[in-house]
Design a protein that fits this description.
Rossmann fold; 14 helices; seven-stranded mixed sheet; alpha/beta; 15 strands; 366 residues; 2 domains; Phenylalanyl-tRNA Synthetase, Chain B, domain 1; globular; RNA-binding; binds S-adenosylmethionine
Length: 366
């Protein structure tokens, strides 16, 4: 089937039900790919010397072809011979050049360096993370689609993949973001690399992050300092964060005395850089099929408070046996009571605030 995405035309296989033999193409990931193009444009505007882009798991070649159309010096890699043929066909169809390699990307990244590396695997990216930190000069783009392990819904799998404790809370997508970033920061630290999140979002059952890599033991130590624990009470929705690698969890919830759960080490720092996010928004262009969605998402991300973790207004109001008022009125009350507050990209009824759960309850009481 023929599809047009961004400024390129592609042939992609019809996707059957379940895992088939055909080369993978997911039209739902167009937002992810549009944002990738915009992030790379914004990054190149800031760092004009970056040139090379590795589409590490290319499948149909869609990411590599779009990057080549945007002037990047592109390498496309996949282990699958059919993917490699299709990727080459799609480059040729658009009259574009690219270096197309049938290889295990872990081996390729062992031999070669790229300014920007894009990991877009099935499921967890962790089996590719060590090689990616060694083979990336500037910007590492990572997708993870294994949201159930990441957010603690598949607990053992999350512990195994990410070497941390994920907890299945009502802010599960943010738990996934912070677990993924924790694992990537700990992996980078082994090579004296500090990955700094420029943009991170959780959308439609995947997490996507763009990490600028800084080098040196001192900065890598600082990155590790941003890891810590979240203590969470499932009864009253109280939560608290503690930086550091040694957990000192309260024995019970300081708010209601019920049991407390510990997640971590997770990343407690900023998952986006708001100034960079605004330059990404300026790089979204109208040929992108998801331009409006991408712009809305970036606007929300840019304004989102960086504090962990978000609340869901409906969940809180249900817990307090109140009806949920209009979000804007609810957030205005919190703000008028002197608390920092923002909406979040995790959902229409979600917000972040510097207020505690008791302060939220008091400030928004009718
Ligand atoms: C989710 S698909 C990639 C989708 C594509 N990036 C897109 O945007 O449509 C994952 C691809 O990774 C490839 N793959 C799996 N293991 C790999 C490895 N070790 N090295 C390179 N490619 C690999 C698979 O063959 C598959 O084509």
């Amino acid at each position: 089937m023929n599809v047009r995405e961004g400024a390129v035309d592609l042939v992609v296989p019809e996707q059957g039900e379940g895992a088939g033999d055909e080369v993978f193409f997911n039209p739902v990931q167009e937002l992810n790919r549009d944002l990738t193009v915009a992030v790379m444009r914004a990054y190149r505007d800031r760092e004009p010397r970056v040139e090379t882009y590795l589409d590490a798991m290319t499948a149909s070649g869609v990411r590599g072809v779009r990057a080549a159309a945007d002037g990047w010096d592109v390498t496309c890699c996949d282990v699958d011979a059919d993917a490699i043929d299709l990727c080459q066909e799609n480059l040729t169809r658009n009259d574009l050049d690219g270096d197309v390699r049938q290889r295990d990307v872990n081996a390729l990244l062992h031999d070669d360096y790229f300014d920007v590396v894009d990991l877009d695997p099935f499921g967890t990216p962790i089996p590719f993370a060590d090689a990616a930190f060694q083979g990336t000069r500037n910007l590492l783009c990572v997708t993870a689609t294994d949201t159930a392990p990441l957010c603690g819904a598949h607990f053992e799998s999350g512990v195994r993949s990410y070497s941390t404790i994920p907890r299945n809370t009502e802010y599960h997508a943010e738990m996934g973001v912070r677990v993924l970033l924790s694992a990537l920061i700990r992996t980078g630290a082994r090579y004296d690399i500090a990955p700094r999140p420029l943009v991170t979002h959780a959308t439609n059952h995947y997490v996507r992050t763009y990490l600028e890599l800084d080098r040196g033991a001192t900065v890598a130590n600082k990155a590790v300092d941003e890891l810590g624990y979240i203590y969470h009470c499932e009864h009253c929705l109280y939560r608290e964060n503690e930086a550091g690698l040694i957990a000192d969890a309260p024995s019970s919830c300081p708010n209601c005395d019920h049991g407390i759960e510990t997640a971590g080490p997770v990343f407690l720092g900023s998952t986006c850089n708001p100034e960079f996010v605004s330059t990404v928004a300026d790089s979204v262009t109208e040929e992108m099929g998801t331009a409006d969605k991408a712009t809305d998402l970036l606007e929300t991300l840019g304004a989102e408070l960086s504090v962990p973790t978000h609340y869901d207004q409906h969940r809180l109001c249900k817990r307090w046996t109140r009806s949920a008022p209009a979000m804007d009125d609810f957030l205005d009350k919190l703000s008028e009571a002197g608390h920092d507050v923002s909406r979040t990209h995790y959902g229409g009824t979600t917000f972040k605030t510097t207020a505690t759960v008791d302060e939220i309850r008091a400030a928004t009481a009718e």
